[in-house]
Design a protein that fits this description.
The complex is a heterodimer. By secondary structure, chain A is α+β, with helices and mostly antiparallel strands. Chain A folds into two domains: 205 residues, Immunoglobulin-like; 40 residues. Chain A contains five helices and 13 strands. Chain A has a six-stranded mixed β-sheet with strand order 2-13-12-4-7-9. A four-stranded antiparallel β-sheet of chain A has the order 1-3-11-10, with no helix packed on it. Chain A has a three-stranded antiparallel β-sheet with strand order 5-6-8, with helices on one face. In chain A, β5 and β6 form a beta hairpin. The longest helix of chain A has 25 residues. The N and C termini of chain A lie far apart (72 Å). Helices cover 72% and strands 6% of the residues of chain B. In chain B, the strands form two sheets. Chain B has a two-stranded antiparallel ribbon with strand order 1-2. In chain B, strands 3-4 form a two-stranded antiparallel sheet. In chain B, α2 runs antiparallel to α3, α3 runs antiparallel to α9 and α4 crosses α7. The longest helix of chain B is centred in the middle third of the chain and has 28 residues. Classes of the chains: A alpha+beta, B mainly alpha. At the A-B interface, β5, β6, α3, α4 and α5 of A face β1, α3, α9, α10 and β5 of B.
Chain lengths: 254, 306
């Protein structure tokens, strides 16, 4: 935890996030952060990538960065043994689940932020708001088990961070961190949020966006398959038939 | 070298795909089977979503069965009339299977159904093939002859809609090949296989076709049905990955070249015993996975839209 700082009008940050008055005095340094690039292009050779986030903040505070991928409905299923074999039995769907979630911080989350701050700003995989769609008849502990399983499975797929990444301060005010995106990163619009914390309270925040998108051939093939499914199906058949025919010609010669 | 698959939305080593295609193609060449029953579980094993594995594998089987069907047609080993009746049944079965696939995926039971189908059909066919080929190896041929002859006049043959199949020298009800085609069409679209392992014995023992035209006719049927399956999966589920299919096709073509020449040096009974053992090993692995305590009790379902 970095040294506690001067008194700041904390109440101001209790509600708003994006636009915060940081002109609380002539001494205040506005939080400024940016990404090394705002587009992750998925090309044929895409094997994952990393984006550098850098910025400046008032000296003496802590910085937390969260990256939230496009939110989707996500169902979690639990297996049970039926007649000797394991089959999916109960399922619980959650709404607005981040398809990707990463967090980085200048220190251990529980030490630099108060529990209510973590919960409100969804900082850390333990504090994601995972809201079940229809949990009728399920006990709180069961819902919690499904929530924990969701996070665990996402971590298995490398889509949620297991442990917060590190943010390093270079000097007093300059900070930077590297955000890693795996090869299976879902395409879509990503929200990158940077929080400045003092004494466990968020005092400033900045939001920027990042686009993950298939480009070139990858995008063309995907769009073709989605938008002109019928023609795509015929093309797939034609490709297979032509290669099968070519193979038979080669076989005949050989 | 990694390649990003646009439909599977994941990055896979290209040489792994070529190698898989080559290895399965080699076995297809040796044994004269399509190899879908090996490839689909292998694709799922390396992390390809089951739906994409099944959809893309259909187009790979199309390529390999089409080239096989051409070769057999050149030698006059295809009963086209029988083939067309089988295809008609296959189209309906394939459409039903793709619909069923989507329903099962919705309720989260597709993996279970794929596993159970593999267990049931591979187990049965593998065991029968093993018993039969071991017997043949020990030269108990007389017994096998009476076994086939006994099936020449099934009650099934006497159903209405009788048709004459000149090439197979048969005059039987068209409902039988229609029904068989339908059934194999369902399997093709759910299991991501061609269904030759089931159709060939059924054509010999149930329909009573001459062995010479069985393989060519089944490849003819498989070509059409996998083409239909590819199309239907592409339209209904958007789960056909052409990059994945092409990599597997290229590997498979090369593997099959070597496999065919290797197969020519082995004896028929030995080959069948080997194939039966491979089938049973795949089957045992799938069975074990169903019974053993899973590593993760929880799994993430198909993504919906919020």
């Amino acid at each position: 935890m970095r040294a506690p700082c001067r008194v700041i009008p904390r109440l101001l940050v209790a509600v708003g996030l994006t636009v915060l008055p940081n002109g609380a005095g002539p001494r205040a340094e506005a939080l400024v952060a940016d990404l090394s690039h705002h587009l992750i292009a998925i090309t044929t050779a895409f094997v994952g990538t990393s984006v550098v986030l850098f910025g400046t903040a008032e000296a003496g505070g802590d910085i937390v960065v969260t990256v939230v991928g496009p939110r989707q409905e996500q169902i979690v299923r639990r297996k049970a043994r039926v007649a000797g074999i394991w089959i999916n039995r109960e399922g619980l769907a959650f709404r607005q689940v981040p398809s990707y979630y990463a967090v980085a911080a200048t220190g251990p989350l529980e030490e630099i932020a108060r529990p209510d701050t973590l919960a409100r700003l969804e900082i850390g995989t333990d504090h994601l708001k995972l809201e079940p769609i229809d949990a009728a008849g399920l006990m709180i502990s069961e819902i919690a088990a499904f929530q924990a399983a969701l996070v665990r499975q996402k971590q298995e797929q490398a889509l949620y961070s297991r442990t917060p990444g590190h943010i390093n301060f270079i000097g007093e005010q300059l900070f930077r961190t590297t955000l890693a995106f795996p090869a299976n990163v879902p395409p879509g619009l990503y929200q990158v949020q940077v929080f400045e914390l003092h004494d466990g309270f968020a005092t400033d925040a900045q939001r920027s966006t990042l686009v993950v998108s298939k480009v070139g051939l990858e995008a063309d093939v995907f769009d073709f398959a989605q938008q002109r499914a019928s023609l795509y199906g015929l093309t797939a058949i034609a490709l297979a038939i032509v290669s099968g025919w070519l193979a038979s010609v080669i076989f005949r010669r050989g | 070298m990694d390649i990003y698959l646009p439909i599977a939305e994941m990055s896979v080593n290209l040489f792994l795909l070529l190698g898989l295609g080559g290895a399965v193609g080699f076995l297809s060449g040796v044994f004269g089977v399509g190899g879908g029953f090996l490839m689909t579980p292998l694709l799922i094993f390396i992390g390809i979503p089951p739906a994409v594995a099944v959809g893309s594998e259909a187009s790979q089987i199309l390529a390999s069965s089409f080239s096989g069907a051409i070769a057999h047609a050149r030698r006059g080993n295809v009963d086209f009339r029988m083939g067309i009746v089988l295809v008609a049944g296959g189209f309906v079965g394939s459409a039903f299977g793709v619909w069923l696939f989507a329903q099962l995926r919705q309720i989260g039971q597709i993996d279970l159904v794929i596993s159970l189908a593999y267990l049931l059909f591979l187990g049965t066919v593998g065991a029968l093939m093993l018993v039969e080929s071991v017997r043949a190896w020990f030269r108990l041929r007389g017994r096998r002859d009476t076994f086939t002859r006994r099936h020449r006049h099934l009650w099934l043959h006497g159903l209405p809609l009788k048709m004459r199949f000149h090439r197979s020298r048969l005059y039987i009800s068209a409902l039988m090949p229609l029904g068989l085609g339908f059934f194999v069409g369902i399997l093709a679209s759910i299991m991501g296989v061609g269904g030759g392992f089931l159709m060939v014995p059924a054509m010999i023992y149930l329909i009573g076709m001459p062995t010479a035209v069985v393989v060519g006719t089944s490849l003819f049927q498989i070509s059409f049905v996998t083409a239909a399956t590819t199309y239907l999966h592409a339209v209904n589920n958007q789960t056909v990955d052409v990059f994945l299919a092409l990599a597997l096709i290229v590997g498979g073509v090369i593997g099959a070249q070597f496999g065919t020449s290797a197969g020519a040096r082995l004896r028929g009974e030995q080959l069948r015993i080997l194939l039966a053992l491979i089938v049973l090993v795949v089957c045992a692995k799938i069975g074990y996975d169903l019974i053993a305590m899973p590593e993760h009790l929880y799994s993430l379902g198909a993504v919906g839209h919020s």
